[in-house]
């Protein structure tokens, strides 16, 4: 079983760096979700991430940096990319940028693509990267296909038997993964809605963010986007206007849902109707609704603007037909 160390403990940074230097993956809190981090330049360390998660190797990882100069050593910034990094880093925005030929991010982390996804996280994770001195590849710290973890307990339940060290920084304040945007010749393509609203990116960029779906037969652009994902054990029923026997209910805002009193369990993402609060609660409530023993999880509508785009995206993936 993994050791769990608090990020408040002064020795944790050293212990985590030691494990990373040995090529071991470490679960690290970020403002979005917990990541399973390892040296992005070290093939053995990256392989250990894929193995712990049971993740297909064709699905590339995000490389996390502590400052823009560290990112610049590995990927090429256009003026538009630079503008977005300055506005949103450190924070929940991942930029997909062309690789710098002299960069050292290992091809296992990029799945051999000519681009890399990079992000500068907030808080302890950023401090860890600065101390370690190299980018950290980190997918969400869950087994492939499962709901992303927003607490150290979530990580321990899912990966505790498969990894050596979990750093506990409490609950993740944003609660959904970063927004992923590909920056290409003055265009922005949204590869995954996430913790920064697309509207906020458009405002800084002065450009529309293109929500382009990949064409059949086209190479997968963000493979994690396509399959059933974030899947609880129980079936998930979206846009529920009522609760059916045996179902747990996840709802949003003040309006009650018909049959709510007979629900197996009821979780309100945000009684006040705040999408930020709803995002922060989403994965924890999906896990708890699942653990309630309900046969299915009914989810009442959540507004689609702002962070609601990411929330609805994750809910649709949770409800998608399973492979
Ligand atoms: O908030 C987050 O982004 C969290 C925390 C830990 O930073 N990380 C995260 O990683 O969600 P992961 O591996 O669960 O999702 C990364 C996504 C995948 O869908 C992957 O396909 C896509 O990023 N991706 C990575 N590199 C890419 C690239 N070069 N081009 C397109 N998509 C890429
Ligand atoms: Mg993930």
TrEMBL record:
Protein name: Threonylcarbamoyl-AMP synthase
Keyword set, alphabetical order: ATP-binding, Cytoplasm, Nucleotide-binding, Nucleotidyltransferase, Transferase, tRNA processing
GO biological process: regulation of translational fidelity; tRNA processing
Domain YrdC-like: 10-196
Protein EC: 2.7.7.87
Class of enzymatic activity (EC top level): transferase
Annotated compartments: Cytoplasm
Physiological role: Required for the formation of a threonylcarbamoyl group on adenosine at position 37 (t(6)A37) in tRNAs that read codons beginning with adenine.
Main location: cytoplasm
Binding, L-threonine: 32, 64, 119, 138, 178
Cited Pfam families: Sua5_C (PF03481), Sua5_yciO_yrdC (PF01300)
GO CC term (a single one): cytoplasm
UniProt catalytic activity: L-threonine + hydrogencarbonate + ATP = L-threonylcarbamoyladenylate + diphosphate + H2O
GO MF, any single term: L-threonylcarbamoyladenylate synthase
Protein family (similarity comment): Belongs to the SUA5 family.
Cross-referenced PROSITE patterns: YRDC
Residues annotated for ATP binding in this entry: 55, 59, 115, 140, 148, 192, 230
């Amino acid at each position: 079983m993994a050791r769990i160390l608090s990020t408040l403990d002064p020795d944790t940074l050293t212990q985590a760096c030691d494990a990373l230097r040995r090529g071991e993956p470490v679960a690290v809190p970020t403002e979005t979700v917990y990541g399973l981090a390892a040296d992005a330049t070290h093939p053995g360390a990256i392989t250990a991430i894929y193995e712990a998660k049971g993740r297909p190797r064709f699905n590339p990882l995000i490389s996390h940096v502590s400052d823009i100069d560290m990112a610049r050593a590995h990927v090429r910034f256009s003026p538009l990319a630079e503008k977005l990094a300055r506005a949103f880093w450190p924070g929940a925005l991942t930029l997909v940028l062309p690789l710098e030929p002299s960069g050292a991010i290992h091809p296992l982390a990029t799945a051999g693509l000519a681009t890399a996804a990079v992000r500068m996280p907030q808080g302890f994770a950023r401090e860890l990267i600065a101390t370690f001195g190299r980018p950290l590849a980190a997918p969400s710290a869950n087994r492939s296909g499962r709901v992303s973890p927003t607490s150290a307990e979530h990580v321990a339940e899912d990966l505790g038997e498969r990894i050596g060290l979990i750093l506990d920084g409490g609950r993740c304040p944003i609660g959904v993964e970063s927004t992923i945007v590909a920056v290409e010749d003055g265009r922005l393509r949204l590869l995954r809605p996430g913790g920064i609203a697309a509207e906020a990116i458009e405002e800084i960029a002065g450009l529309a963010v293109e929500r382009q779906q990949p064409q059949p037969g086209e190479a997968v652009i963000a493979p994690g986007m396509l399959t059933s994902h974030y899947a609880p054990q129980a079936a998930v029923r979206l846009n529920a206007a009522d609760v059916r026997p045996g179902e747990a209910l996840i709802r949003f805002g003040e309006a009650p849902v018909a049959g709510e009193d007979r629900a197996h369990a009821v979780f309100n993402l945000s009684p006040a109707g705040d999408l930020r609060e709803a995002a922060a609660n989403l994965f924890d409530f999906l896990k708890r609704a699942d653990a309630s023993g309900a046969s299915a999880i009914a989810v009442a509508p959540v507004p689609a603007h702002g962070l609601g785009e990411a929330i609805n995206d994750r809910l649709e993936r949770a409800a998608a037909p399973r492979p």
